[in-house]
Amino acid sequence: MLAVHKYTLAYENWCWSSYAPTWDHAWDVVKNINKPNVGLCLDTFQIAGSEWADPTTASGISEISGLNSEWLKTQSNKSLKTLVEEVPKDKIFFLQISDAYRMSLPLKSEKDEPGLDYQRNELGLPSLKNGDSTLLVTLV
Q: pTM of the prediction?
């Protein structure tokens, strides 16, 4: 339907969603659709959020099973290398560079959707607060 009107669709993962939380889940959706006018929207916030961020911790970094930040960075780098190797450049329709502030008080984990609340309320422009934010652009 979109192709008839020469439109494209850029599909984006949402890091705290239940269906496509990572870039590779979104890429699977795009591959399964298999249409030339359907590609990816890669968002630095969504990639970082799905791979190592956690707004319910004081550090802002995932503490699942006691994983340390170096291990998470290594895994994130591996994931981005896989992205570069597997996703053809012509299927990346949009690169969204966004950031988030590190909150002085983390969100409460008992809240229904702490990640979604963080995503809605704490997104900012890249490096807006003099380095208080984390930007993944150097890895992308």
A: 0.73
Task: Report yes or no: 133 and 100 within 8 Å, Cβ to Cβ.
Answer: yes
Q: How far apart are CA 24 and CA 7, in angstroms?
A: 23
Half-sphere exposure of residue 121: CA atoms within 13 angstroms, side-chain side: 11
Residue 99 sits at φ, ψ, to 5 deg, of -145, 175
- Rounded Cα gap, residues 26 and 79, in angstroms: 13
At residue 11, the 3 state secondary structure works out as: strand
pLDDT tens by residue, 18-67: 888 899 999 999 999 999 999 999 998 888 888 877 777 777 777 776 67
Contact 76, 52 (CB under 8 A): yes
